[in-house]
Amino acid sequence: MLKKRKRPFLVTILICLSFSWGSYSQYPTVKERIINLPNFDKKAIHYGYFLGLNQYDFKFEYINNFYKEFNYKDIIVTPKTGFVVGLVGDLRINKYLNLRFEPGLYYSSRELKYPEFPEFTKESDQRREIKSTYIHLPLLIKVSAKRINNFKPFVMAGISTDFNLSSNQKNRNDNAGNIFRVTDQNLNYELGLGFDFYLYYFKFSPSLRGIFSFQNELIPDADPTSPWTGKINKMLSRGIAVIITFE
Hints:
By secondary structure, the chain is mostly beta strands. The protein has 2 helices and 9 strands; from the N terminus they run αβαββββββββ. Strands 1, 2, 3, 4, 5, 6, 7, 8 and 9 form a 9-stranded antiparallel beta sheet that branches.
């Protein structure tokens, strides 16, 4: 089931990478007759917007190897494809370095399936759906290679913070009332790679991003022995996004 759900998203990634790799393989030899936007990278500040898709997963750290000790299977996370949209602000540092602020809205959904604990009296107790609407605020350093004609590869790295509008952190109900709670803010580090294509009127940039939380997002249930949260020490988000930027 997990493989089937991931397949459309992975196909999208492979298409983007294949397209980018095909261009990259010609990088040293392509000769353009017309150079598009020749002064674009000389601007001190410029703006743009982006669209894309994402999938988020969770990494769990369990208390005292509970699942291994009692031979339980790990919690299964089924990510669903979400969308991203946002704006770009770019500050030129030098020919190869840019500082970027890319505030955006990231919508994602994940389904958790728990092992068959004795405390669960019905099948619905094993499943929890976690929907997240993030206001995503990353600060990134973009490191570019030398531009050859209308093409240029780049890598990115930085930190970000998320404000989760769907966290339920302040909700008094918990999993006993079918409410799975997570923190309303978390911190991440990000890595990415992509390619700039200079078109006649604008710059088009597909990229692949990895988003990795280093802050525990789990809000424990009121009952410390809760089968949903009692045996989890940390729950960390892991996300991947395919983003297309227009500048």
